[in-house]
Amino acid sequence: MKNKLKVHRAMHDLTQEQLADKIGVSRQTVIAIESDKYLPSLGLAFKIARFFKVTIEDIFAYEGEKDEN
Amino acid sequence: MFVMDRKKYKQLRVVVALFVSAIVALAVIGNSYLLSIAGVLTGIVFMALVRAKAKIRTDEREATIQEKAARMTYAIFAPTIGIGAVLMLIPTQSGLSVFSKGEFAYLESLGMVFAYLTLFLIAIYAISYHFLNRKYGGGGDEE
What we know:
- The complex is a heterodimer of chains A (about 70) and B (about 140).
- Chain A has about 70 residues and is mainly alpha-helical.
- In chain A, about 55% of the residues lie in helices and about 5% in strands.
- Chain A has a two-stranded antiparallel ribbon.
- In chain A, α2 (about 15-25) packs across α3.
- Chain B has a two-stranded parallel sheet.
- The two termini of chain B are about 40 Å apart.
- Chain B has helices spanning about 5-30, 35-55, 60-95, 105-135, and strands at about 1-5, 55.
- The longest helix of chain B has about 35 residues, at about 60-95.
- The interface between A and B is small, with 11 and 9 residues.
């Protein structure tokens, strides 16, 4: 799973801490998502997409079987 | 009800644990069982009140890590104590091993404790799996 969270965060001029507070997670979680080390739950993915007023697909890109582990 | 993040909750828990430890230490020094019980109960009641009154915001990544750590702990701990129990019980039951005699005789009791602990662990896993499976929609026959 690739994501453009960092790009959207930069577009909204937010720090990782600020974004984490807005979506109700820790800064470590934002860092982990941005560096593709953690796949967010569907609920959190929706929360992020709604926060940036885009669709989930605008932020997260599914890359097939290698994402399913 | 107020919202408290997991980090603040953990800090509060450490403070309460320190407080309870200090009270228990004082109770031990002063030979007072009552004080130690009061200290522990105060800590338990305070933490229960905090959990009841505050909505603790959990971080989903942390929850995932906790789940994986718990799974790994179970996967390592259950076979380890299970095998440990067998290794302690078989030689003592057969009476052939040096471990069944003299200063090693306690190994049989320890093996029994390990065996029951393994059963207890597996039983808790099975029961919690059953309830969680039902909670999350498994086991139903309806279409």
